[in-house]
Amino acid sequence: MNGQSVVHSNNKTSTAALFGGTTTNVIEVPPGQRGGSVTSAQQSFFSSEAAIPTRVFDAKRDFGGDVQRAIDAARDYGRGAVAYLPRGNYRVSRTINITGGNYYVQGAGIFSTGISWQGDKVGPVILVSDPQNVTLEHMGIHPPTGVVAVRQVSIIPQPSRMTYEHLELRGGPTAIPHTFTGNGAFEAVGLSKDSVVTIWDAYSGGGGMSFDNCSSARILFNVGGHHSMGVIRVKGTQIDRSGFFGIQTCQSRLRIEDNQSVVASDVYVEQMGMRENMRGPYLYISGSPTLPAGRVTISGPKICGKNYVARGPHDNLTGRLDEPYETYLTVDNYHGQLSSVMSQYYNPNEGYEPNKKAFKTVCTGEARLDVLLMANQYQQASKSPPSVLPVIEGGPNVTRTLLGNRFSLLQWHQSEPVFNVNRTSSGLLLAALALDDFRELGEHDQELNHAEK
Questions:
Q1: pLDDT tops 60 at residue 293
Q2: What is the DSSP string of 155-167?
Q3: C-beta of residue 427 within 8 angstroms of C-beta of residue 405
Q4: What digits encode the pLDDT tens for the residues 28-73?
Q5: Which among 322, 213, 196, 346 has a CA at the least distance from the CA of 268?
Q6: What is the DSSP secondary structure assignment for residue 420, as one 8-state letter?
Q7: pTM
Q8: Chain-centre distance of CA 315, in angstroms?
Q9: Are 66 and 93 in contact (CB under 8 A)?
Q10: Largest interatomic CA distance in the chain
């Protein structure tokens, strides 16, 4: 297929016919330490039974619209009960508390059931404390900017389990990774070791989500919202890093601090500079050589690096898209490995300027860092000359590995391989480790989402 490179692991290239008659552009990655999460063709991905509510406590019918009383009743009953919030807007001025276990807090849909905040400027609207198999789902939570919509904490040193599904969360300001230092619309703080949080289709309205000192817990984003989740911020200096933070599919940008680790198989973003307040890198990671080494492994973003140039002082979106944004990934003293695999980086610079370097990964600091760019597509507009290669800036503490990447000119339908860098045993080991990260993500998905309860 037009000389497309193939990157594969634990497969055999015994026949050149599989690759169009030649294996020139084939890079064999050695087997990693992990196998597939599916072990046989007979293994099922789906549960054979669906949960049926054992009892429904209707907030309007049974409690005159008092949300907390409905939740307390479902908590006291347990056993799969539902605290149901029918269609409507519920105005609350005191934090709603979710504790206990084995029940649901359920609305009629994100556009049908809404909770608005009438309280102070602190919040949160909902506080989730040490839940044991609790689900919050199908509603919108709409505090003003600066008030957290949902906060989850651990008070006791025992594992908890919480599921968030089909939620619209507002409250955090729109921000970009290298300037986002707030809590966002959702925050989890200090979750106990072995706690589990699964998130399905959560939309934060650009307000972002924050996870602080949760690195001994397991957090899994499954299928993200069709709108942006804002910036996902992961931070914390705790030494116990035995947990896992995984993202399967969502639309977001990432800020990873304190050498925290994240594996993201598909985090979509596009047109980084569409608005003045959205300029900035897709990914910002930072840390310290004194903290445990981390791993950030991403795949799937389609990144269009264009700055937005306003036509006037009151312009919103009617201006030009101009001046290609050069820096896609920003690294500040992060210690560990950064891998970008099977991603698409698009720089639509119509008027190519030789002094501009597209597709930049900028690394600062003295921490040891291994950067792997593998099987990515680097696309340039038709007026640009060929061979505008990805750039990894950094000092001698940064190792650079480029394997199986392609450069293409969109309108000319031309494609050529990017020159491989560090195609050695050490570089191929980095590739194997990155692929193992995705296998581990699959293992957590299989266990948390598809195992029989």
A1: yes
A2: -SSS--EEEEEEE
A3: no
A4: 888 889 877 777 777 777 777 788 889 999 999 999 999 999 999 9
A5: 346
A6: P
A7: 0.90
A8: 31
A9: no
A10: 73
CA angle, corner 26, sides to 21 and 28, nearest 5?
135
Structure tokens at 147: 């008030």
What is the spatial distance between Cα 57 and Cα 179, in angstroms, rounded to a whole number? 43
Query: Which amino acid does the sequence have at 211?
Result: F
- Listed in sequence order, the residues at least 6 apart from 353 whose beta carbon sits closer than 8 Å to its beta carbon are none
Q: How many residues does the structure list for the chain?
A: 453
Nearest to 8 by CA among 400, 19, 17, 21: 19
Asked if 369 and 285 touch (Cβ cutoff 8 Å), the reply is no
Kindly report the number of other CB atoms within 10 A of residue 447's CB atom: 13
Strand partners, 132: 101, 161
Cβ atoms of 388 and 409 within 8 Å: the answer is no
Single out the residue of 272, 122, 99 nearest to residue 187, CA to CA. 122
Cβ–Cβ < 8 Å for 132, 102: yes
Instruction: Please give the angle made by the CA atoms of 430, 302 and 432, to the nearest 5 degrees.
Output: 15
For residue 21, which amino acid is it? G
- The DSSP letter of residue 432 is H
Q: How far apart are CA 249 and CA 253, in angstroms?
A: 12
Residues whose CB is less than 8 angstroms from the CB of residue 97 and which lie 6 or more positions away in sequence, other chains included:
68, 71, 126, 127, 129
pLDDT mean over 403-419? 77
Smallest CA-to-CA distance from 407 within 415, 399, 395, 398 is with 415
- Can you list the alpha helix ranges (DSSP code H) found in 5-144? 59-63, 67-77
CB atoms within 10 A of CB 449: 16
Please state, in angstroms and rounded to a whole number, the distance separating the CA atoms of residues 261 and 319.
38
The beta strand positions in 13-76, using DSSP E, are 26-29, 56-58
Tell me the C-alpha distance between 234 and 208, whole Å.
11
| 238 band by pLDDT with thresholds 50, 70 and 90 | very high
- The string of pLDDT tens digits covering residues 137-152 is 999 999 988 889 999 9
Phi and psi, residue 432, nearest 5°: -65, -40
Task: Decide: 199 and 162 in contact? Cβ < 8 Å.
Answer: no
Between vectors from CA 260 to CA 236 and to CA 298, what angle results, nearest 5°? 145
